[in-house]
Amino acid sequence: MHRYIRLTNLTPDLLDMVDQKQISFNPAVELSYLKPAEQEMVKEALDWAQTAPSLSQAQRIKKLSQEGACTPDAMREIMSEVKKGDLERVTFRNETLRKYFPKSYTAQQMQDQIIKLLEQWQKRRQRDQER
Containing domain of residue 117, as a range? Predict the structure, then answer.
């Protein structure tokens, strides 16, 4: 319960991002310990990096704040790191793929079709290598 109450210390911009599921709960709790001016810097760093903070990143930003070293450059540096999960995942924006599929296709249908096409491609490559 205490952690939910912490969220009331977030600036409206960051709280909106939590409500819209752009920032996860645990990182948001960590960011709630920052001063309002520092939270504004975080919002700018998130907009700049076009990503949400991981728990580890939020904890390091909180530590910077406690040390009095919270600067826009320091936050951008933390937010520009490649997250471990991003190294293991390939993502496409819907807009990038949409032109290849009927408008009625859901994201799951697009994914299923892409996997089928990749399987066909892989089989073709294996046949070509066997020749």
Answer: 94-130
Q: Which residue has the tokens 């991002």?
A: 17
Same domain, 80 and 111: no
pTM for this predicted structure: 0.63
Report the domain count for the chain. Answer: 2
Domain match, 74 and 32 both: yes
Residues 57 and 102 in one domain: no
Query: What are the mean pLDDT values of the chain's consecutive 10-residue runs (131 residues total)?
Result: 93 94 95 96 90 93 95 91 65 82 88 93 91 81
